[in-house]
Design goal:
single chain, 207 residues, alpha/beta, Rossmann fold, 6-stranded parallel β-sheet, 4-stranded mixed β-sheet, 12 strands, globular
């Protein structure tokens, strides 16, 4: 469509005339045929490239691995009282003594040093974790205010590309996409972490 056609189309729309439908070609890849094991390796590589820490474990070792993730993020002296978990995180994933989010005002979440959540889906190609505001992911503030974020990702939640991820998500949900720890840089390209969210991201990859 030329610029002239675009301008005339907008005029017709403003005058109440129906605008002809524009067919946008979509030739991008919508599926990924790589085997699941390869997708897990790609996701791990991307996350580590973004300076996240990835710990892999079997389904029966999630709680112990989450505890190891908290130690990696907070240090050996971490205390369960400093950790808040999303309400939908299964009991089998929770180390002893951690607290469940009690819907306190968002500013109160800064009292915690770390958060543990699940995810809605993970994108291997971009190293992105998507949280959707469900009980498993928790409310948005939960994943943004404490300084360390631990996300548990199950193998079945990992897809190859963004189109596959979007097909699994509710477009009306409050989606938060996390690709590594929060980071920004100034005009001199000095990297600063933790400005817009957690400065530490640890991913527990199950399977």
């Amino acid at each position: 469509m030329s610029a002239r056609d675009e301008v005339l189309g907008r005029i017709r729309t403003a005058l109440g005339e129906p605008r002809p439908e524009v067919v946008v070609p979509r030739g991008y890849r919508t599926t990924d045929d790589r085997p699941p094991a390869e997708l897990l390796d790609v996701l791990t590589d991307r996350l580590e490239d973004y300076r996240a820490t990835v710990l892999r474990c079997a389904p029966d070792a999630v709680a112990a691995t989450v505890a190891a993730a908290l130690e990696a993020g907070l240090g050996a002296g971490w205390a369960p009282a400093d950790v808040v978990v999303a309400p939908g995180v299964p009991a089998a994933w929770r180390p002893d003594g951690v607290r469940e989010d009690d819907a306190r005002p968002a500013v109160g979440l800064t009292d915690f040093a770390a958060t543990v959540t699940g995810v809605a889906v993970a994108v291997a190609e971009t190293g992105t974790l998507v949280l959707d505001g469900s009980p498993l992911s928790g409310r948005r503030a939960l994943s943004l205010l404490p300084d360390c974020l631990v996300c548990v990702v199950e193998a079945g939640q990992v897809v190859g590309g963004v189109p596959e991820a979007l097909a699994r998500l509710d477009a009306t949900a409050p989606l938060t996409m996390v690709s590594g720890p929060s980071a920004t840089s100034d005009i001199e390209l000095n990297r600063v972490e933790g400005v817009h969210g957690p400065r530490t991201l640890v991913v527990v990859l199950v399977g």
